[in-house]
Amino acid sequence: MNIHVLLAGIGVICMVTLPAEATVITTAGSTTVLPAVKACAKSYQAKHAGIHVISAGGGSSKGVSTVGRGKVDVGAASRAVKGKEKSTYPELKQYQLGTDGVVMVVHADNDLSNLTADQVSKLYNGEFASWAALGGAESNVNLVTLGKEHGTYELFSKYFKLRGEESEGNIVFGKGHAWIAFSQDVALDRVAHDKSGIAFASIGVASAFAEKSGRVKLLSIDGIAATEANVSNGSYKLVRPLLMLTNGDAKGEVRNFMDYLLGQECQATVKALGYIPVR
């Protein structure tokens, strides 16, 4: 006898066939946290027969709301939980998995290696229509963004003091129209195939993509590179916590899985993926 597990309503649908005796743990939320959760879940399952962890993305806001409404066992967020969310879901418990930053990313052939915060703001507000205005090539700037449900977007827009409105598949910042990518991987792939593109993403996710593809590069901001050392020492300012969330105290197998996520083995995985572990 098999169990078919359907995880829907969070931007993705997963159908998995499991043995009848399997214990299923579901997670959803931040696409920044997702690679770490998937990697740790894989090693956890290898050590615990009969446990199956289903992990989905959807963004930080959905990570908070789906766990708060009891739709999943564990939520993930790459930002702090908002006051309104705490009021709506008063039983939420937070566990910090690590720390990460947000980085600006361009095509590997782009001549630039650094942007100031003011330049990023003006790029997304449409004040610089061509890369030539910044000393780059004579080509139009093609803006890429994540949707507002992503914690990565929230930190990006807050740090660079941008206010955007969604319109027909874009977020409009002043005169700038940024194409909305469904996920960070989609945003990075878009830039990898567009020499005029610029996007933002998690340092961990972007670093892994750059190393694997060789087609994008990470930019310094105000002369500070997006490195683990600079995030750790506080000189790189675009940083945020990576949180795991449960609705009330985790119990049973969910508690065991949470303990593993915060333990030494998973923390080593977090570090290997380019994030800053908490221990």
UniProtKB/TrEMBL annotation:
Domain PBP span(s) in chain numbering: 21-264
Annotated signal peptide: 1-22
Pfam family for this entry, one: PBP_like_2
Keyword Methyltransferase: no
Highest taxon above the source species: Bacteria
Record's keyword terms, sorted: Signal
SUPFAM superfamilies for this protein: Periplasmic binding protein-like II (SSF53850)
UniProt keyword annotation of Signal present: yes
The protein's name: Phosphate transport system substrate-binding protein
Species whose genome carries this gene: Mariprofundus micogutta
Organism classification: Bacteria, Pseudomonadati, Pseudomonadota, Candidatius Mariprofundia, Mariprofundales
